[in-house]
Design brief:
This protein is mostly helical and about 160 residues long. It is about 80% helix and about 0% strand. The termini are far apart.
Length: about 160
């Protein structure tokens, strides 16, 4: 009774993560359900994202993808990049590199202000063994985010 209504969802969310770490996936899923039921609409996307990570850890790629789609539908514009990055990482994990690239290109357009989506494109190409594509992604990223040290550091390491 001493927890405000706005924070009850967070207690359930943390409970879900504790259950997942303990290997109790059914209990984690139930706690995510409670978190979703109590979360404010502008925060519910975090529950879908957490649930997607749990499902991905269980190798339930289809379920994780559905939860990420829900998160993408509900996430506020200013944090949209976070969900798009997760979507791209899921597709890369599933072996769908072209789909991961397409999601990152979408992120470049929709969240141009966020340098991390550009960094992820570079790192994706590196993990795929495409050094020249990684260099091209670096140059394109620096054309937009000229003052970002992390992007310069990656380009220097690539050359």
């Amino acid at each position: 009774k001493s927890i405000s209504k706005e924070l009850i969802w967070k207690v359930h969310f943390e409970h879900a993560q504790i259950e997942e770490r303990a290997g109790c996936i059914a209990a984690a899923r139930q706690a995510y359900v409670m978190a979703a039921l109590h979360a404010l609409p502008n925060l519910r996307w975090k529950v879908w994202l957490g649930g997607a990570r749990t499902e991905l850890n269980c190798d339930n790629i289809g379920t994780a993808r559905q939860l990420l789609d829900r998160a993408l539908a509900e996430v506020p514009c200013k944090t949209r990049a976070v969900v798009l990055l997760e979507c791209a990482r899921l597709e890369e994990y599933a072996g769908n590199l072209d789909q991961a690239r397409a999601i990152l290109k979408r992120a470049h357009k929709e969240t141009k202000h966020e340098w991390k989506v550009f960094l992820e494109s570079i790192l994706l190409e590196l993990r795929a063994g495409n050094l020249q594509a990684a260099i091209q992604e670096s140059l394109a990223a620096l054309a937009i985010h000229r003052g970002t040290g992390r992007l310069w550091a990656v380009l220097i390491q690539l050359k």
